Each structure stands twice: as C-alpha cells, then as structure tokens.
Amino acid sequence: MKDGVGTDPGEAADLAGVRCRLRDAEERLREAEETIAAIRGGDMDAIVVQGPAGPQVYTLENDDRPYRRLIEQIGEGALTLTPDGVVLYCNNRMAALLRMPHEKMIGRSLQSMIAAGDRGAFERLAAQGRGRGRFMLRAAQGGMVPVHLSLTELVNDGTRVLCGVVTDLTEQQQAETALREAHARLLAEIAERERAETLLHQAQKMEAVGQLTGGVAHDFNNLLTVVIGGLEMAGRQLANLPAGPPAARIERGMDLARQGADRAAVLVQRLLAFSRRQVLEPRPVEVNLLVSGMLEVLRRTLGETIVLDAVLADDLWPARADPNQLENAVLNLAVNARDAMPNGGRLTVGTGNRTLGGAPHADPGMAEVVAGDYVMIAVTDTGSGMDQATLGRVFEPFFTTKPPGYGTGLGLSQVYGFAKQSRGHIALRSQPGAGTTVELYLPRLVPGEGHPRTVGTPAAGAPASHRGETVLVVEDNDDVRSYSAEALRELGYEVLAAADGAAALALLDRQPGIGLLFTDIGLPGGMNGRQLAHAALRRTAGLKVLLTTGYPQNAGDAAPPLDAGVQVVAKPFTFAELAARIRRILDAP
Q1: Among residues 57, 109, 487, 579, which one has the fewest Cβ atoms lying within 10 Å of its Cβ?
Q2: What is the CATH code of the structural domain delimited by 174-274?
Q3: Measuring CA to CA, which residue among 136, 165, 171, 150 is closest to residue 76?
C-alpha cells in the first residue's frame, strides 16, 4: 500500500463492531431522552417498580391516551396493577371511591387497602390473572367500602399487567340489608298473622264448644229438674207405704237415684262454668284473706308428700269476683297440681297486682285481654309439666291426660269459664319435666263500685201457701212445666200454666189475681223470660217475679238489670228450694 502503511483485517472488524454498538447506544439514548421529554411534557405516564428481577419501568404511551380519557369517563373504578398487585394507574372514579388522591394510590400495593380477611382471596385471583370477586377496601378516612373486582391479564411486549374494573357495592349492600330487614319484617308479620289466626281459631273453637256445652247443660238441667222433682215426689209418697222390705228396697233405690242425679247436677254445673253461664255473685274480695283461709284445706287436699308455700303480695288490690267460685277455682288448680306430682313436690300459691295491656297473647286464656288492672293468683307446681300439644287443648272440656276413670277433664275448663265470665283471664306456662304455672287474673275492684245484688240462699224446709196465692208458671218444656205446676199445687197454690210469653200475657190480662210469675228465661216466640217479666210488671201492680233457667246469665252480663222483686233460681231446683224461694218472694214487702 502507498506510504507503506498497512491495516490489519482483524482490527478493522473490531472497529466496525464498536461503531455499530455506538450507533445502537446513541439510538437508545435518543429514545430515552425522548421518553424523558414526553414524561416531563405530560405526554406519557411511567412508573418504576422494584421487583424481584430488579427495577422495571411501566409506561402508558401517547397512543394509549385516548383510551385513558375514555376510562376516565366511565362510572366504574378502573386500575392497572403489576402481577404483585402494585397500582400502576387508577381513574378518577377509583380515587374518589377510596377518597384518596391519585399520587397516593400510584405505586401502592392494593393488598394494603384490602381487608385482612380478603387478602388471600385477592392474591389467588391475581395469580390466576383472570376472575372476579367481592372484597372490602379500606378508604383513606376510615371505613370499609364493599366492591366487586374483575381482573383481566394483559401482556404487551412481554410485560404482564393486570387490568381491573371496580364496582362500588355500597348501595347494593344497603339495598340487600334493607331487603333482608324487609324480609325479616315480612316473616315476623306472617308469624304474627299466623299466631293471631291461631288465637282466633282457638277462641272460635272455645266459643263453639262453650255454646255446645251450654246447650247440652241447659237440656240436662231440664231433665234433671224433672228427675230430681219426680224422686222427691215419690219420696214424699213413700211414707204412705207400709213398712217392710219392699219399702226399704224402694227407699234405697231412690237414694241411689238421688245420688246419681246430684252428681249429674254437679257435672252440669261444671259445664255451665266452662260455657260462662253459671250463676255468679261477684262482690269485693280480699284475695290474700281468701287464700290464707284456704291453706289448711289445701294442705289436707295435697297430702303429706307435697310442700305448700304461700307467697302473698303486700298492698294487694281488692278484686271483684264470686268468692265461692274463686275458692273452687283455686282448689281445682291445686288438685290438678297434686295429680301432676304423684311422687311429691312443691306447690306455691302466690298473689300480685298486675296491669295488662290489650295486645294479643299466645295463651288461649289471654287471647281477649282487656287492658286494665288485675289481681293475679298464681299456682305453681314442680310436677311433670305439659308439652305444647297438650297446652293447646288443656282448657277443652273432657280433655284430660289422666287415665280413664281418674278425672272428668273439667277442672281447668271450669276455671277457664269462671275467669272469662268474671271478666278476667287465665294464663298457663308449662314445659315437660319443669312443672306448670297457672295464673288467674281477676279484675281489680274499682273504688266506689256498687255491690251487685245477690241471690239469697233458700231456707230449709218446704213452706206451703197459707193464703191460696195464684202462681203463673211459664215454661216451654212440657215435662218441667208439668212438674213445676204439680209441685206448686202440692204446696197449696193455685196454678196457671203457659208455654210462651204471649200466652202468659193473655192469662195475666184475664186473671188479675195472679200474685207471682214463675217463668223460664229461655222462651220461644220472640219474647224471653226477662222481656216477659218487664211487660208483666208494667201490666200488673204488685206482681212478684221468679225467673229460672238452665244456663243462668251472670249479673254482669249484657242482660238488662232485674226489677225490684225479681229473683232467679237455677235449674235443677228441688221441691224444698222452690217452695222456700216462692214463699220468701211472696212474703217480701
């Protein structure tokens, strides 16, 4: 070569390589300078994330910015995450959702904003790269935000990112809560309606059974009036028979018949009590004194194996009730409790003042609670208790859990009827093996309340007519009318008889000398015995009236008050009772 200078081929090749690498470095430097200029000018977003493989730059280039503006306009939260969960980007909706500025969210791990209990689920979702789930995110000012997160994995130039869409579930959760609460209220209303329907059905059933038993008791009382009256008439004629074995056998037979009739009369009286149609004589009662006076009788009734306690409240209000029927009710409850404790136990009789509201009650005896003040008598035993099925029928007449021959099933029925007829209530709580508590509620005596007129007790013996007075007997039952007329004639009275009110008024118009009207309350033809009595008293001055019925009404019922001189005798009545009652009415001023 010229000048004698030569070039080694190997050195030339190395030089070309250096020049090529230099051009590459210059190109990368130019691109880096352009990127830095774009970041500084706001035309490109970038973030450096320190990962396991060292620092890595994530950029959002200029060509993607229209999509970013679109994402900023949507109503859902949007964000871009690294595979490890670091926030690369979030839109305004996402920042507002967590009440956190963009600069505090970018570069922060999303796990730090997720509730601790949800982090494991999020990490599994991020590892899958695709999926959705519900999470609780922690807002900047405190409080948790329920969200739905949907993740999708994107790979660009070998770079893996996670794109997420976040939906605020706050309103949905509130709606779900409101829906659950509304559903719970609906279920409660349905349960309350079913309970009310059950109580109504129970009350209707008890009312229907009461009407049935009342009607049966009325018919039986008519029959018993004739049976007992016939036995008494036969007994009075027995004295005319010659003494001897035949007369003795007749007398024993009649005694047995009278005993059976008396037991039947007691049974009918219990049916009347359940049907709320027994004769009551309500008056002021000091319940503590009444219970204290019964303790010795209760101890003898319960026996030595049962311990009797009395827990009587101080300052107990006076009650308004029939004291005799109240004693029977307490005694019935004690006997039921005794039978539930065959191996002994403890019975507690307690009293207290109670003010009840008018809300429906689950207990059939409290289904018609009238708001007001009541005196409560509670009888609690430690016996075998009852299940719910038994509790639902416990007040039904003739229902009993005792073996055949050990009870009529009328004890609690009688107490139930007495409570309702006294304008009170009865509540019963029991569980198998945990004993039973029966609470009897009687109305508190209103201060200044007048004492009800009471029906006197007939005197002993059978006083006859001594002036030949005339008695008008009004009875629709032929047998009872015939017996009553025959008994009065035997007593020496002049007797007229009628089967209904219209016929009775016609007799009164034709026979001015009638001194007493003896009439059944239940009469056919549209005029009952009370109405007949009012009409007769307006027509005949000085007329005396004696009413009778197979199911007498309580003096506190809706029936009009009795006029002066009017009294009531309950069927079945005896010959002596009828004679004494009529004589006392006629002799009264």
Answers
A1: 57
A2: 1.10.287
A3: 165
